[in-house]
Amino acid sequence: MRLRQSILAAAAAVFVTGGAQAAEPVKLKIGWITVPIALAPIMDAKKEVTRHLSKSYTLEPIHFAGSTPQITALASGDLDIAELAFASFAVAIQNAHMDDLRLIADSLQDGVNAYSGPFVVRKDGPVKTIEDLKGKTVAVNVIGAGIDIGMRALLRRHGLEANRDYSVIEANFVNQVQLLSEGKVQMTTTVSESVNDPELQRIARPLFYLKDAMGGPTQILMRAARAGTIAQKRAAIVDFFEDEIREWHWYLDPKNRAAALKIVSEFNKKPAASYDAYIWTNDKDLYHDPDDRPNVEALQRNMKTQKEAGFLNIDIDAKAHSDLSIVEEAAKRAKG
């Protein structure tokens, strides 16, 4: 009898312990580049909006300077969800042989609303048309990045080839303004923040826009994960995106603008006024889908342009490498 009771007690202990372990939140390691393009680093600022944070999942936001290093982190298992540009997404499949890589959510799109990133030249400079870039030097943030690919594609349509007809140098967006001002380059790329720089507005004008180069919207940044990670942590990932969608709806609500700007400015240690001029606007900022839904059709077209520009050797089926069921389920829940 005592033996039977001991066995039952031991079984009960195992059951309770197992249940407690099953209830432990799942850690999600999420790559990010900047805030507020990414909300993961500031998710806990609005705990009353999120329902699952610290319950079904915990976050470990990991900062990266760009998207390319996140490919290595995905490959090593040090990252569950990466923030990738369309160019690095394709390179991960081609070069890192991540055939199981899946597009799961939006981060940033160009050319969806009234805004598209301009390529700018000096107002008083020698470049009046695209053809005038022959023999000139242009600056991009990263050679082989999405903006660079778009630029090369458009200039090729105008008969200009990189390194034959013009030179390309790398410089961060802040330094590009100075390079243009000093006449060291004749065209630069931009992001929303630099476009609204008073110095750039004073000296520069748009020559063309990214949407012109890419033939429509561009899936600038997206969230991606490997199929094995999705299968293993799917419930927690859906909960995370449900929370993020709720947060996006809160951040994009005009009545919350002042409080939202305060959160972003305090995190980035910049004045709220520096963001107020453009952030989350239709005509001065890039687009983020409020329900985290990425643009698969744009991604397909973007990767085709990437191949035409010589940065990709294979054809990639964007739909086959997408799993939208996560954000679809999350958005449905978030509206409930």
Proportion of beta-strand residues:
15-25%
What count of structural domains? 2
Largest sheet: 3 strands, antiparallel
Average pLDDT score = 92
Query: Which shape, going by the Cα principal axes?
Result: globular
TL;DR?
The protein has 336 residues and is of the alpha/beta class. The chain has helices spanning 2-22, 68-76, 86-94, 146-157, 173-181, 192-195, 198-203, 210-214, 227-252, 257-268, 273-276, 296-308, 325-334, and strands spanning 26-32, 57-63, 82-85, 101-110, 118-122, 137-140, 167-170, 187-188, 204-209, 218-226.
Task: Provide structural commentary.
With 336 residues, the protein is of the alpha/beta class. The chain folds into two domains: 2-112 and 218-334, Periplasmic binding protein-like II (D-Maltodextrin-Binding Protein, domain 2, 3-Layer(aba) Sandwich); 118-214, D-Maltodextrin-Binding Protein, domain 2 (3-Layer(aba) Sandwich), CATH 3.40.190. It is built from 13 helices and ten strands. It has helices spanning 2-22, 68-76, 86-94, 146-157, 173-181, 192-195, 198-203, 210-214, 227-252, 257-268, 273-276, 296-308, 325-334, and strands spanning 26-32, 57-63, 82-85, 101-110, 118-122, 137-140, 167-170, 187-188, 204-209, 218-226. It starts with a helix and ends with a helix.
